[in-house]
Every structure is written in C-alpha cells, then in structure tokens.
Specification:
Blueprint: E1 5-6, E2 9-12, H1 16-25, E3 31-35, E4 51-52, H2 61-71, H3 78-86, H4 88-98, E5 114-115, E6 125-126, H5 132-146, E7 150-154, E8 156-163, E9 174-181, E10 186-191, E11 194-197, H6 218-226, E12 230-231, E13 236-243, H7 256-259, E14 263-265, H8 285-299, E15 304-307, H9 313-319, H10 321-329, E16 339-348, E17 351-353, E18 365-367, E19 372-373, H11 385-402, H12 429-445, H13 452-475, H14 480-501, E20 525-526
Parallel strand pairs: 1-10, 2-3, 2-11, 3-7, 11-18, 17-19
Antiparallel strand pairs: 4-6, 5-6, 8-9, 9-10, 12-17, 12-20, 13-16, 14-15, 15-16
Helix pairs in contact: 1-5, 1-11, 2-3, 4-11, 6-14, 12-13, 12-14, 13-14
Length: 531
C-alpha cells in the first residue's frame, strides 16, 4: 500500500460540482482533487443545453421556482428550490468571472442569448452554443490546474471511506478515503478533516445511458456502506433523445432542439406528442420519454425520429454546431434529415441525503451534485437545473467548511490495505458477465415502465449477483472494473428497494400496478442496516 497523503479537504470527482468546491476552498485550504479518469472528464462535460437562471427581464425567480415544483410532481422541497433559484444569479456571475464563454445576443456584449427547454415557461437557459458543459468544465479545469493549493490526482478511483470507527476511535466522522491508483494498481489512503463527494450519478446501471464516463454510483455506494441514508433512488431520469446509431455511443441530442421547434415523429412522419400532453415536445422529460417508449412498444420500433429540418439551415448550424457536426460524421444532415432517437438513462434524481449546505449524516462528509439528494429535483429534474445545483452547492459546501476552521487532528495511520489473501483473477469474464446482466435486467425490469412482478424479478437477481460479487471482491485483487461493478450492484439494489416501496406513479416512477398518483407526496428514505 502506498503511504498516506494528508490534506485539509478531499474532493472526490472533477465535474462542475467538485471543481467549484475546490476553487472556493483553495485560497484557504490545501485541497486534493481525485478524478476517476482525467481532470474534467465526468458527466458535466457532456451537458449540451445549458444552465438555468433568470436573466430575461420578463421572467421572475418565482416563475422559475414554480416551474421546478411542477416538473418535480409534488416532491420537490420548496425551501431547497427557493434557495437554489435565489443563488442562481450569483452562481452564473461567478462562472462568468471564471471566464466561461456563454453565448451572447448578436450585437450586444451585455446580454446573453437565452434558450428554452421542457418545463420552463420562459427562456432562461444560458448556454455556450450547444456545448455548455464542455465550456464550463474546460474553464474550471484550467483554473484548478493553475491553483497551487489544489493537487490533482488523475486516474484515482475511490474504494471506501475512512471513518474514525475504522481507525478504532470514538465517533463515526469521515476522515479520509482509500483510493486505487489505476495506473500503478496500488491502493493509497488519503486523510483530511473534510471529504466532499462529487462523484456523479448512477445512470451506468442501465443498458442505455447518455453518460459516457463514470456514473457508476461510486459515491452513493460508498456513503451507504459508511452509514449514510439515501432517498428517492427510484427516480431515474431517462433523456428522451439519445442518437440511435450503432457507432454513436451515448451521444445526447440536446433538449434545446425541441426548445427551438424540433418535432418528434413516427417513421411515417406523423407527430405524436400532442396525444400525450398539451405541451407536446416541450413537456417535461418523464412525459416525453414515456411517450416515446409507448410508441416504440406499440409499433415494435427500435427508435423514433426528431426533426428540425423545417428550420433554416444557417439557424441550425449556428445554434447547434456540435450536434450538426457530430451527426454529419454518422451520415446524418440535420438540416435536411430527421434524427433517429431513443430514450436513455440520463440523471439520478435521488442520492445521499444532505442538509442545505451539502453535509451528510456523517460529520465531515459532504455530498454535492448528482450524487446528492437535496430535494431540488423531486420526482423529475427540470432541464438545466442540474448544472445550477452543482455550482450552487459547490459554493455552499465550501462556505460551510470555510466557516468551520478545519484543524488537522493527529490520527493513527489507516489500516494497511490487506492483499495477502487475494490473487490476480483469471476469470475477468465474471465481471463483464455480471456487469452486462445488471444493466440488462435493470433496463428491462426497472426502466421507464415498471410492475411489481418486474421489480420482484430484479430483486431476486440482484440478491444472487451480490453474493457472487462479494465472493469475487473478497478473493481477487481489485481493479477499476471490479470496483465499479461492486458499486453498481449496490445502487441497483437501492433503486429496486426504493421502487418497490413506492405504491403510486409519480414523475419518473411509472408502474402499471399503481398508475395513479397518491394524494400525499412522500420521499422514499432508506436507512443503512447499522442505524
């Protein structure tokens, strides 16, 4: 095992949330930023549409709050929504100050071009052409790399949290993490008075996902094993429009296309969204994804089509240059041809329970971004609120730590990572097979439309796989794939348990056995066995 590295704050994850927190902390604390891949390669990078905030003089924060509450189907926590929306202008101003090049209105250097997405009654989406996530991440990554108080550890995959209990001390406070150096294959412990999980969601638990990197629920699984509660894990958002092409892995077609007039069509060219919701293509994502799923199953289709070719070609090329160029690589000219699209797992609305500053049930442990449950998204996340949540809670968690005056406690060395009883695996096919099985039965049984019977089948399968994975983890040397598989199995079980507990259809959770919404909205709260 590599020697222990000591810092003031550990940040796990280098997306928008993690880098925002690190930059707010680094003028006062020594920060270690652990990235599972390379700096800035998480899911935030692939956010095309933008970030929501009230900039239109005809818009109001009250309208933004109400739109969020409506999209969340009665489960949003109003106080959280009001807090995040109230902080939105400051969050955007901070990003602008960092140098994020949001698209401006033509002929004006003082105003920004705003687009509209599903669930928003007004134009309130700031964007950087159609690659907003990339613009934000590239900007923040350059700032992080230049800051002398932030040390970046690329290719480090967190294994488990280190608590005082694990060190033989009184209390359950989090004081560090074991991490796998993917390049050397060795385990290294890190310790700090505070640990921030910014590890993203768990969409990789499904067969089809819009998230090409990460998203294996690592932070959620680690926090659960350490004793944190999780909530609302049954609400998994399926983005309605992922490009359907054998060579296009996880390429998302931004909701902004529908915001600018793109229509969903059947193969015969017939539009269908008006049959499901009066808002048609601008309905919230859960409604649009369910409508597409319904039509695909009704007609036996592999996909439907998204068409914006009725708009002028120069408009399409200027507003959606990334999508236009990427689709051309697959032989699709969106100025002339409709796009084949299919729903894909996109966002985890539930997660680790936190307070209004991002702190979890375990002292010293914070969770921000997609891995956290703040109450903002309710039963269905409204478009472009996620990047906003990352920046707002990244700053709030940092401010909370700055007000606490962190001090380094003299701690015993973490127990050595014991590899004396394990061997190198000669059966990695077990990992790939179990990985594939989890993602397939989660897609089939715990996907867009659910039933009690499907959930029971999924529950039976995950219990059997958990036994196999635990046996494998106990006997063979760890690898990145094995760690992700272990975490995926944990979050799959949490999603299934949560879905079985909800005896209604609400937002992203739709079950044929309970098609109506219950009169009272309640969160689904899971508590670890040790509590």
């Amino acid at each position: 095992m590599l020697p222990t590295r000591k810092f003031d704050v550990l940040v796990l994850g280098s997306g928008a949330a993690g880098m925002t927190a690190a930059l707010h902390l680094a003028d006062h604390y020594r920060v270690a930023l652990l990235s599972k891949s390379n700096l800035g390669q998480g899911s935030s990078r692939w956010a095309q549409g933008g970030i929501a905030a009230v900039y239109d003089p005809e818009d109001t924060q009250e309208a933004h709050v109400e739109d969020t509450l409506i999209a969340g189907a009665g489960l949003c926590h109003r106080d959280t929504v009001e807090q995040v929306v109230g902080e939105s202008r400051d969050a955007i101003d901070w990003l602008i100050h960092q140098g994020v090049p949001f698209t401006q209105d033509s002929g004006s250097k003082d105003t920004y071009h705003l687009t509209r997405e599903g669930g928003h009654r007004n134009r309130r989406i700031l964007h950087a052409e159609d690659a907003t996530g990339q613009a934000i991440i590239d900007t923040l990554a350059a700032r992080v790399a230049a800051h002398e108080q932030i040390e970046v550890f690329d290719q480090y995959l967190a294994i488990d949290l280190i608590t005082r209990h694990k060190l033989g001390l009184a209390g359950q406070a989090c004081v560090g993490v074991y991490a796998l150096d993917s390049q050397s294959g060795q385990v290294q412990p890190f310790t700090a008075p505070a640990v921030i999980l910014a590890t993203g969601g768990a969409s990789k638990v499904y067969l089809y996902t819009s998230n090409p990197d990460g998203s294996s629920g690592d932070g959620i699984a680690m926090a659960w094993r350490a004793g944190c509660r999780v909530a609302n894990m049954e609400f998994n958002q399926f983005h309605p429009t992922c490009l359907y092409h054998p060579q296009a892995k996880s390429f998302l077609i931004s909701e902004a296309l529908r915001g600018e007039g793109a229509r969903l069509l059947l193969p015969n060219g017939q539009p269908f969204m008006q049959q499901f919701d009066e808002r048609a293509e601008l309905a919230p994502r859960d409604i649009v994804a369910r409508a597409i799923d319904h039509e695909m199953k009704r007609l036996g289709l592999d996909h439907v089509y998204l068409d914006i070719s009725h708009k002028p070609a120069d408009f399409i090329q200027s507003h959606f240059p990334t999508i236009y160029k990427r689709c051309l690589e697959f032989g699709i000219d969106i100025t002339r041809d409709p796009l084949p699209v299919v729903p894909a797992a996109h966002y985890t609305c539930g997660g680790i329970v936190t307070n209004h500053r991002g702190e979890t049930d375990i002292p010293g442990l914070y969770a921000i971004g997609e891995c956290a449950f703040t109450g903002l998204h309710g039963a269905n996340r409204m478009a472009s609120n996620s990047l906003l949540e990352c920046v707002v809670y990244g700053r709030l968690a940092a401010e909370d730590l700055l007000n606490r005056s962190l001090t380094q406690e003299s701690l015993p060395e973490p127990p050595a990572w014991d590899e004396s009883q394990v061997t190198d695996s000669d059966e990695d096919v077990v990992i790939s097979h179990n990985w594939d099985e989890i993602r397939r039965f989660m897609w089939d049984y715990v996907g867009i439309v659910r039933t009690d019977k499907r959930l029971e089948r999924a529950s039976h399968r995950i219990r059997l796989l958990q036994t196999e994975i635990h046996d494998y983890y106990s006997n063979y040397r760890i690898s990145g794939d094995l760690l992700e598989l272990r975490n995926l199995a944990t979050v799959a079980e949490l999603i299934i348990q949560s879905a079985q507990l909800r005896k209604e259809s609400r937002g992203l959770h739709f079950t044929l056995d309970y098609p109506k919404m219950a009169p009272e909205a309640r969160d689904t709260l899971l508590t670890p066995p040790r509590w």
